[in-house]
Amino acid sequence: MKIGILQTGLVPEILAQETGQYPAMFERLLGGQGFDFQTWSVVEGELPPGPDAADGWLITGSRHGAYEDHPWIAPLESLIRAIYDSGRPLVGVCFGHQIIAQALGGKVEKFDGGWTVGPTLYRYPDGVKLVQAWHQDQVTELPPGAEVVASAERCKYAALLYPGHAYTVQPHPEFDAAFVQGLIDHRGPGVVPQEQLDAAAEKLPLQLDSPDLGAQFARFFKEGRIA
């Protein structure tokens, strides 16, 4: 099964030397599932010819806001709607979660409660999962057809299921502790309050449930369900 990765952000250069770009992180997360991957760097203006260029699609995170005026946003939203209509499975993470909701009629805004960074608890029907987070933006109004399947203390719509079409999550199961430490060191200062950065760094040694979300993604690609 071929998964098309739509890259909507770039890893800071100082971190990319060690981790690679976001598509490489997702390839590691989904490794061993029998998938082939092809990446289109949407953030640099590269778009696939259409939904049939892959069997399933994944939209990465980004430092950009879904509501910002970039020349690639509108074409990406059109592609999202075309993938949705095609019935091919679509997965979105962080910015991907947000842009899919926006493209389908929802709303994305900066959370007035500020940032969420580092290991964060998300409530799913089968229990809580600890997963990395790094965001201020979030979905604030649901699009038609979206079902809420996870929430957090500071994020009401943390995971959305569009039955038969898409599964999207706000947290970052593709991030490991070393990468988040890199964000704390190189992207956080002056942007995220220092006390939040310090608290996130203290929690980095905790064991995460990220593989559970990776398994959900794989199941959704293959079977159209997350459980």
What would a concise description of this structure say?
The chain is an alpha/beta fold.
Please write the CATH class name: Alpha Beta
Count of extended strands:
11
CATH superfamily: Class I glutamine amidotransferase (GATase) domain
Q: What Rg is obtained from the alpha carbons, in whole angstroms?
A: 16 Å
Number of helices: 7
- The domain tally reads 1
Round the mean pLDDT to the nearest integer and report it.
97
Specify the helix fraction band: 25-40%
Flag low-confidence runs.
none
- The proportion of residues in beta strands is 25-35%
- The side-by-side strand order for the widest beta sheet comes to 2-1-3-4-11-10-9
- Second-tier CATH architecture: 3-Layer(aba) Sandwich
Secondary-structure class: alpha/beta
- What is the H/E string? EHHEEHEHEEEEEEEHHH
Termini gap = 20 Å
Described by the principal axes of the CA atoms, the overall outline is globular
Describe the model.
The chain has 227 residues and is of the alpha/beta class. It has a single domain (2-223), classed as Class I glutamine amidotransferase (GATase) domain (Rossmann fold). The protein is globular. The protein has a seven-stranded mixed β-sheet, sandwiched between helices. A two-stranded antiparallel ribbon has the order 5-8. The mean pLDDT is 97. Helix content is 32%, strand content 29%. It has helices spanning 13-19, 22-29, 73-86, 95-103, 177-186, 194-203, 210-223, and strands spanning 2-7, 36-41, 56-59, 90-93, 107-110, 116-124, 127-135, 137-141, 147-152, 155-162, 166-169. Pfam families: GATase. This is GMP synthase (Glutamine-hydrolysing). Residues 76-176 form the Glutamine amidotransferase domain. It comes from Salipiger abyssi. One of its GO terms (molecular function) is GMP synthase (glutamine-hydrolyzing) activity.
